Every structure is written in structure tokens, then in C-alpha cells.
Amino acid sequence: MPQKFDVIIPTYNNLSELKECLKEFSEQSFDDYRIIVCVDGSNDGTNEYLDSSQFSFELLRLSHENNAHKGRDETRNLSLHSVTAEYILLFDSDIIPAKSLLQKHFELLQQKDCVSVGEVIYRNANENIWAYYLQTRGKGKYNDLDEMPAYYLNTQNVAFKSKYFIESGGQDLDLSKSYGGDDTVLGYKINKKFNVPTVFNKSAKGFSVLHKTLDKALEQMHEFGNVNLKIIRKKYPELDKIFNLNIMESNELHHMAIRLMLIKVIAQFLLKTLKMVPNRIKLLYIQFLVFYSIYSGYK
Question: What is the pLDDT of residues 18-53, one digit of tens each?
Fold first, then answer.
């Protein structure tokens, strides 16, 4: 019989982290699952490790033809024709699952038909300001078991019925060549097609260490505004308020006034003084810098 869960893990040249991730999955309190590792052209020995190792769970390795590198979204979509379980867990290879992770997702999914968005805790949030910021945005604004907007789905750690992933076509590959918005669109597509709530399942925990710097993150936000946000705006015109699109495009006076403040000199000042202010002010600074970076790319 098919398992209750297919755990779909895309990976690209991070074998050491993948090993830790798989090691902890072998310790799960819930044991009715299979792991599908989707390899994105890795050349660090990932394929050889997966093919030669023995695991306490069933593992299926998938890869692109000629071991090509095609990005996370197209790599995750490799699993679309291989999923057989009732539920899927989308999970990132640089996250360590808590032993109860699958059990907690399963318990919620048995209670109600929903999208179960698990928690990701960054162990270096005290040292990495971007990790600290990420803990407070999106699902971080909600309490355990709160319903959230569908666009807060995050494929780092999320579980739902497999048919939702398959019948919605998986990740939108029009967004796969650049950065950002892909998880937002997946959440929107599932909600639109199946009308199921998105729930923050805080007890379904994973742990990670974030290496991305604030400068790199803001660079990616600019790229997102310049490329993928424009694709989303054209392809999904009804999504006219996400990522502050309404403020970016509105002719209302108060929105125009906000845009007048989105200038480089203010952004540079905030970056220069960021370390001098308390954490709650840091969050406001970063919120402005993210909006500025997206807007400067979008306009």
C-alpha cells in the first residue's frame, strides 16, 4: 500500500546538510513515509551517496536528464509523476526536522482539510539579522493553528494532500528562472482551485542555520521586483495587493507620498545606522529596505 506521506526534498550541491536532514528523518516518530530526493544537477557526490547508501525508510532519487541544473522549482516538479502517498511534505534539504515533525503535520491534516505550514527556526537568528527578520514575517505574525493568507505558504516545510500539488501543476515554471514569488503562487493556486485554509502549524518544527546576508537578500528582492513580480502581475492580475503592489501602482495621494520616500539616500542611511538601533527598530528598517528593493526593481 502507498505510504501516508511522500516527503519531497530538492537539493543542489549541499550533500553535508542533506545527510543531516535524512539522518533526522530516520528518527521520526511517524514512520509511514517515503523520501523523494530531487537532485538539481549536483556534482558534489550527492547522486553517488544516495545510490550507494542504505536508509531506514524507502528513498527514491530523481534527477534531470544528463544531471542538468534547472533550479529548485523545476527540480521539485520532478516528483509530480512519482507521488503515490495521500499527503506530501515539501521540505528543504538544509533543514533538520524535529522528531515529531511528520506526526504533527499528520495530526493537523487528520483534523481538518488544510495546508499545514510548519515552523522553521533559525538557530543563528541572534547573529544573522536577515534570519531574525524572517522569523517575524509571513507566518511569524500568527499564533499556532491560526489560519493565514494562502500566499504565506512556504515550501521549506509544508504538508497537504498530494492531489493539491499534482492537480495544481506544482510550481509555476514561468517563475523558475529568477528569484522569488514561486511559493506565493503555489499557495494561491491551491487555494483558488481547492478552497482549503492555510494553517500555521507551529509544532511541526524544523531547524536550520541561515547563511544569507542582508545585502544578498536585498539584492534578491531587487531581482524579484525586476523579473518575477512583473510575471506574477501579468499572469495573475487579481493578485493586485501582494508585495504592496497596490502602493507601487496606485494614484491615491497617500500611496504616492509613500513612494516619494522610496529613494536611495534613505535606504543608504538606514543600512549605515542599522546596527545602532534596537531590534524592534531594526525590523522596521529592514521592512523599508525590502520594500525599497522590490520597488526599485519593479519600477
Answer: 999 999 999 999 999 999 999 999 999 999 999 999
* Beta-sheet pairing, 198-208 with 96-97: antiparallel
At 299 the pLDDT is: 92
Question: What are the angstrom distances between the C-alpha of 165 and each of 3, 52, 155, 186?
Answer: 16, 30, 11, 8
Q: How far apart are CA 167 and CA 175, in angstroms?
A: 18
The β-bridge partners of 14 are none
Please name the residues in contact with 298: beta carbons below 8 A apart, sequence gap of 6 or more: 225, 226, 229, 230, 248
d(CA 14, CA 93): 8
Is pTM beyond 0.90? Reply is: yes
Q: Which three cell numbers stand for residue 259?
A: 513612494
Whole-angstrom Cα Rg for the chain: 20
> 160, 179, 208 — which closes off a domain?
208
Of 168, 155, 117, nearest in space to 38 by CA: 155
Residue 35: which domain range?
A: 5-208
**112, 195 in Cβ contact below 8 A?**
no
Domain final residue pick, 208, 230, 253: 208
Q: Which residues of the chain have pLDDT under 70?
A: 1
CA 62 from centre of chain: 20
